[in-house]
Amino acid sequence: MAKAKTDDDTVADGTADAAQSDGSTLGYEQARDELIEVVRSLEAGGTTLEESLALWERGEALAKVCRRWLDGARARLDAALAEEAEEDEGEGAAG
């Protein structure tokens, strides 16, 4: 596979990173920022079909990482809200 010669070779050549680690080591902000760069690269054009496909695949992997983080955050919020509601119900019944 040809490697794109850009200032940000990690974006153009970064499909292996997401596939190897499955994104488990990336934080939300890091994945989001890299995804933004991937989108910018795709929108700018000037890449070969192969490079564009590699960028697309990297973007999909990064989007999944972001989605996992957001789903986890939503679950934590829902649990905290449910716990708070239970405490409020308990106080209302006791008072």
UniProtKB/TrEMBL annotation:
It catalyses: Exonucleolytic cleavage in either 5'- to 3'- or 3'- to 5'-direction to yield nucleoside 5'-phosphates. Belongs to the XseB family. It is found in: Cytoplasm. The keyword Nuclease applies. The gene is xseB. Its EC number is 3.1.11.6. This is Exodeoxyribonuclease 7 small subunit. Pfam families: Exonuc_VII_S. Gene3D superfamilies: Exonuclease VII, small subunit. Keywords: Cytoplasm, Exonuclease, Hydrolase, Nuclease. Bidirectionally degrades single-stranded DNA into large acid-insoluble oligonucleotides, which are then degraded further into small acid-soluble oligonucleotides. Heterooligomer composed of large and small subunits. Its main location: cytoplasm. GO terms for molecular function: exodeoxyribonuclease VII activity. Residues 1-27 are annotated as: Disordered.
